[in-house]
Amino acid sequence: MKTSHIKKWLKFIKVKNKINKFGDKNQNRVLLTMTDGLGDLISRWNLVDKIVTSEQIKGNTVCILIKERISEVYKFLDTKNTVVLFDKLENEKNVDKLVKELNDLNSLGFRKIYHLEFGGNNRFLRLIKAKESIAFFNYSHSEMNKGVGKLINVFPEKNIYFDVQNYYYELFKEKSSIDELTAPLFGNLNRGSVEKVNISIGVGANYIGRMASSKKLAKIIEVIYQEYPNITITLIGKGSFDQEYADEIIKNIREGISIKNKVNLFDTQELINQLQSSDIYIGYDSGIYNLAFRLGVKCICLAGGVHDRYEHDGISTSVIVIKSKTRIENKKNSYYPYHPFLEELDETLVIEAIDKLFSNQEIER
Fold first, then answer.
1. What average pLDDT does the segment 165-180 reach?
2. Residue 348: its pLDDT value, please?
3. What is the CA radius of gyration of the chain?
4. How buried is residue 303: exposed, middle or buried, by Cβ count under 10 Å (0-12/13-18/19+)?
5. Which domains does the chain have, with CATH numbers?
6. Whole-prediction pTM
7. What's the rounded Cα separation, in Å, for the pair 163 and 169?
8. pLDDT tens-digit profile of 271-301?
């Protein structure tokens, strides 16, 4: 076991020994913990909606533990009396603050906890107490399975939506198809005229090792513009890194190509509107990519890996994933920190993907 791993679990034990006993579990209060990213939250949307509705029908109050930076998207979920609690635990280094935050949560007195994180996020969540607890089986961090009342099986080699489907069935004994779980959210798409192709390009990813450099993405955009000169291109993203990356693209793009840089300029509603008005979305594996997919937008995912549980081409014909055929150790390549496959990508593969997604439409080139 790595030294860093040992330190993490020693800290966990220290915090565990300090927290107070939990509150009265006879209260009608349940908790949903969802402290991972936007893409994971979007993929569980139907499951969350079903849990919230079923618990409220029983007269229970539903509390949701979620990261503040992505909480805005949940204003679109009809939660009625749902309380949203902002997660402050994941990166907390101060043991005393951790203990206080956990004690504050435990004092609320939850009867049931639905742990909805897919992976090894926040081990401290397991210190929130309840009479009943349900969670996805954690195959990467087996320690986190201890003490959970009911573990839901997951399928590491399949798309993430199969895990959602299984959780749904285990809770409600109702079958929900992958098509139902991936159906477009928030109403009909607001498509513009096909004479003017609207392409949204996401500039961020869940980590930099799944990205190409800004110079490479600028080159891809130039080739797209060469093949489709009658287009509108909009860069979208969130955060300071995405902003700097987008600024570099603008600097590296050749003259004559007009690009709208909307990074950090959209709130959640405006971002949804932008995606819904797009003919196609191009980007790396990210929360916005997953949001575009759930909005029913045609997507091209520029993926570096061999297999990823968010490669939605296996469950939808509206997604094309461009990826390497062999696994590459990212830290051992000359393009580090960017992905070598994406840095060497033949730009015409993106054009072929666009052509395929537009094959049933009359698009002017």
1. 97
2. 96
3. 22
4. buried
5. 16-181 (3.40.50.2000), 197-357 (3.40.50.2000)
6. 0.89
7. 10
8. 999 999 999 999 999 999 999 999 999 999 9
